[in-house]
Amino acid sequence: CRHVDEILEVKGVGRPPLRITSNHKMLMARSRHRGKGYFHDPDWVSIDDSWVETYLYGTCSTFHSRIQDTPFIDLASYHPSYYSGNMIRKGPHKILVDKDFLMLVGYYLAEGSIGGGKFDAAIQLSSHKKEKNIRAWAMHYLTLLGLSPKERFGKGNEAVIICPHVPLAKFFRTFGVREDKSLPKWMEILPPDKQKWILIGYMLGDGSFTDGRITSNTISPHIAFQIWDIFLRLGLPASLVKDRTPGEYLIHERKGFTKQRWKLKTTVPVANAIKEFVPPDLLFDKGNKDLDCQDQSCIKKRDDYYIGQIYKVSKVRYSGLVYNLHVEEDNSY
């Protein structure tokens, strides 16, 4: 490691800014014809401001990620005393990590919480009153697990599923809350074919299926990066950007404070690919838009790489250590 006084901040389309040293080599390519999708062969280079409007390549994370399947979770490990003694308890000791469970996990990431007061040992899943098909699916699955979910309606368009079960509530507590909410580490390395159901459950809760695309917003950077990584592991390019600067805003003539939000966005073809896996009765917008529709604000996929255009390279004052990691044969560090 060594001490530096200045680093480069690289801002590109569809991804958070990168901060690197001036001698850090990255895989880059210049466009042959602006907007036509033709590129010169990429090369490992050190970046400066002459590389604005060129394209940064990133290796698909599927090829450099550890993958480990988990066939089931043992709820007894989250609350051993619940299953001790001779008392017969409702609900399963073990839950298969299958399509429906992972969709529930994704939906909980988007709309779930652990209740307070008398519902302190219950998971809660919020929704809009119109999303009755999604609630019906969730309640059916929880009932198949031997649980007793209840549906409650609040003011306006609020609807909530409340499902009391101490071990399941303790399992979901490990996800954290609000901006600290995230998937457990073992779910980050599930096979991509399983992770796609987390993605679908999350988008059913927090996604907007309008205008042919899928967009979602979250205040949790952990969720944003985990869902983005699942997109990339599935070979589906999606964009992740900061959506709003935190601070006070005047909303409907009332002051409010907005936290930092992260926005995920797909192109029309990626949205259509996702919709192919979603049960038709769970979608509001079932129509596919033109597959040739272009969206220049999203990253693209070329063979085994994701690429995005750089629009700004600037020097940033920095006082601290940087680390040089040497990797044999390439510069993928």
Question: What structural keywords apply?
Answer:
333 residues, alpha+beta, 7-stranded antiparallel sheet, 4-stranded antiparallel sheet, 21 strands, 22% helix
What does this entry look like structurally?
With 333 residues, the protein is an alpha+beta fold. The chain contains 7 helices and 21 strands. Strands 1, 2, 3, 6, 7, 20 and 21 form a 7-stranded antiparallel sheet that branches. Helix 1 packs parallel to helix 5 and helix 5 (192-206) packs across helix 6. The longest helix has 15 residues, at 192-206. The radius of gyration is 22 Å and the shape is elongated.
Radius of gyration: 22 Å
| N-to-C span | 14 Å
Per DSSP E runs of 2 or more residues, the count of β-strands stands at 21
Q: What's the total helix number?
A: 7
Which percent range fits the helix content?
Answer: 10-25%
Uncertain runs are 286-294
Largest sheet: 7 strands, antiparallel
Structural class: alpha+beta
Summarize the structure.
The chain is α+β, with helices and mostly antiparallel strands and 333 residues long. It is built from 7 helices and 21 strands.
Per-chain topology:
Elements: E1 2-12, E2 15-20, E3 25-29, E4 31-33, E5 38-39, E6 43-46, E7 55-59, E8 72-74, E9 94-96, H1 99-111, E10 112-114, E11 122-128, H2 132-144, E12 150-153, E13 158-164, H3 166-173, H4 185-188, H5 192-206, E14 207-208, E15 215-218, H6 221-233, E16 238-244, E17 247-251, E18 254-258, E19 261-266, H7 268-275, E20 300-302, E21 305-322
Antiparallel strand pairs: 1-2, 1-21, 3-6, 3-7, 4-5, 7-21, 8-9, 10-11, 11-13, 12-13, 14-15, 15-19, 16-19, 17-18, 20-21
Helix pairs in contact: 1-5, 5-6
